[in-house]
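PT: before anyone asks, these are the final sequences, not the draft ones from last week. 1011 residues across everything. Please model them as a single complex and drop the result in this thread when it's through.
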Amino acid sequence: MATAATAPQDGLPETPESVVVRFAGDSGDGMQLTGGQFTLSTALAGNDLATFPDFPAEIRAPQGTLFGVSAFQINFGSREINTAGDAPDVLVAMNPAALKVNLAALKPGGLIIADTGAFTKRNLEKAKYDANPLEDGSLGKFDLLAFDISEKTIEAVKPYGLGNKDALRSKNMWTLGLALWMFDRPRDPIHDWLKSKFKSKPEIADANIAALDAGHAYGETAELAGPLKQVHIDPVPSKPGLYRTVTGAEAVSLGLVAGAQLAELPMFFGGYPITPASAILHHLARLKEFDVTTFQAEDEIAAVCAAIGASYAGSLGVTSSSGPGIALKTEAIGLGIMTELPLVIVNSQRGGPSTGLPTKTEQSDLYQAVYGRNGDAPMPVIAASSPSDAFDVAIEACRIAVQYMTPVMLLTDGYIANAAEPWKVPDPASYTPFPASFLTEKNAQDDEGEGVFLPYKRDAKGARPWVKPGTPGLMHRIGGIEKHELTGNIDYSPDNHQRMTDARKNKIEGIAVPDQEVCLGETSGKLAVVGWGSTYGPIHRAVDNARRKGLDVSHIHVRHIWPMPANLGDLLRSFEHVLVPEMNTGQFKTVLRDQFLVDAVPLTKTSGQPFQIAELEEAIGKYFDGIDGNEGGQVSVNDDQLPHLETGHDDGSLKDQASPQSQEHSS
Amino acid sequence: MNAPVKIETTLKDWETDQEVRWCPGCGDYAILKAVQRTLPQLGADPANTVFISGIGCSSRFPYYVESYGFHTIHGRAPAFATGAKLANPDLDIWLVTGDGDGLSIGGNHLMHVLRRNVNMQIMLFNNEIYGLTKGQASPTSREGTKSPSTPIGSYDHPARPAAFALGAGARFVGRGFDVSKHLPDVLKAAHAHEGAAFIEIFQNCIVYNKDVFNDFAAPKGAEDQQLWLENGKPMLFAKDARGIALNRDTLNLEVVDVVDGDWEAAGVIVHDVTNRSIAHMLVEMPFGPFPMALGVLYDDPRPTFEAAVLAEKAAASAGKEANLAKLLGQGQTWTVDGTAQDPV
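LR: through. Structure below.
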């Protein structure tokens, strides 16, 4: 986001604290690749950053249309960056549709870079423009830099003998070259990347490099005149080490692999295609050398059942879906709870109910995760707060599942799954292993001192033993019918059911959960802003901004949704006010009230879009404005916020939402 | 997969200490005994044998077999079994399901486990009724079946389990009935088949659908209505006085009389378990005008799902090192040099 130091009408200062750039074009214009490479150069420059891809729900959207616009937004700066940015400072519009869809979000005084070559009569019509906006003065409140990128690209690549159509494919590299110049970035890493990407087609690599260099050179020569100027952003000091960008979907997949390794178990992943969770299946399908078996089942139910079947046979069973698929898996999850087998269920939440908004983000499956099963069926629930956090959370989910012999729900959402951020690559050796142990001998003695096997005899954690079929002498039967508390034989008796219900509850409530820490601010005071999941970024920045203004506000972010940290109630009670921003109608607020009897006030947003920092700053400000009774409530819908909902015809189609980074990674 | 080690057991070794809770006289008892009699003959190892079931009367089966057992949820047993088999292909898995469990709520999973060809024995106990829920019409109930949910008589057309299985791509289709002395032979053939082996077992529900199979499955006197198929043998029944021929004009099967044992003259065809076209005709053959086709109707193995999964995993892993640190460090990476910047 732009900083307070930026006077909006004056455009970007020469050394802004942070900048938001949005690359937007037709689906075929290669904006995701452009954004991905710009991200790499930003990372190499030492800036902190966050990115978000925003591409059409359509599999092949018609060229030039409003709903065919694909965009990539990056926020980078010399200060810690927590979100992809409320609104762009710079909009690169490769065609009229891209301008139209994204213009409203652009900051006043922001810079538009537009390719006049694509503003043809036909494209203007497709974008539903009556007149050419580049020429009719309608962009007066912005800085406009419009020139024929198409033509300049064709010129630049002419020596390489490409036809016009192929030449125009390098338009994105020309634009990237200009952006590299604008933010004072070296071209070498991109040159290297192009050479390696087009190793087998050196003429294509050369053409793209020529386009990149031409865009860069254009910046240098155009600097003297017009609105284009070079901007420099200082690096953020960071710990030395190896870094990479990572999306939430990648981090969950890697965390699951790491978790299975730490548990010393083969992993079995049962999945069924669903937006936005499919990316996890795709990532894991390519990691077979880590003893990962992936199984695309016939439906969501079969996916979770196969995972439980694999856990039964001694693997770490994992399944993943989004809300509607989780609903289908619910009965089987109940069986996992009843038979006390390890299972990790990843829910990449999207807008609901029903099919809802498949490609948009929401946090509205919290009740489903915590409460949504028949019977008293307690299950641990943990939530990832950012793409990189998803790695640790996935490991934690595996640990709990294996150590406590229970299904565990891991909540992420569409935003986390798709967003990318820098990640200091962790050393796997720094994680404590939690090897699974399988019972191979009888675990009790009868009155005569004969060895007997009791399938439900619990350990200190309340977990029953894990016995692999194939183990001699320990044959036994499990199932969904209530079982005797020791022998595991069918037992409907009242006292047994009471004790088994208690045992299941006590086991989950007894899970060792680290104490809740305050991630920003004091441990008591006027206001605690309490979040969970992907609201971490905007809450953190908003609280940081408020604290810089001197406001007494702290940020608490809860990873362990169920069971909750033991100190959380006392911590919340040490604040005068508790505000809970959520992308739902107040679900976590209800759980907090229920568990701790605290007056948690909801701040809700269900437009399918993440919170903006400004919205949260405003909500925080209401606790310090001297007016009573205006706190919390629903964030009013901001029609200008991106991503727009109207631009996609979301029909629930099952599109891979993998980011360009992940596609590169997996290719 | 390792070659299974033959283990010496007796019928008693396969009995659990649990009291069997089916209704007295239920056909399930006979099937349980047939299975417990068959397992020792197979040299099966109780520690390596897993019975996996769904929900229904038949699905209580695992509790009564001294092996590993998993009583899962309604209709989903094939999915659990697929996961277990992929996690440990050495397990010898028997699936127990019924007409409601396997063809109604679990029809989808049954279809997919068959077409994938996951190596296991699938026993579908067909009693043409919902027993455990007290007698509602099931997907295999005959038209006009009066039940609490169909007081005037059912009007939906029944599913035919063997035809369903073959249509789903099954490579083994067998048939038997609860009290038949031949049932262990069908089970043995199914076990010998590498891949998903489907066995329809007609089972008498003596409470809600008593004796509906008596025309061919009565303990005595129905033998003439049984066509026991044997590979390489002519399709003869009714003490070899009748046989099944292929009418080459209509391309339909027909019943022909065999005079003086000359079945060739009567045009009786020889059973070839690998003939998929004839198998389709046999599973569609209506009882009444025809005898009930029993035994091994079709048996033509092809590579199993788990073998393909294992092979793919091995090929994809070949020459690759499972180095987690290296994996984490892939993608768009850069190094922050501690000497150039202040560590935070």
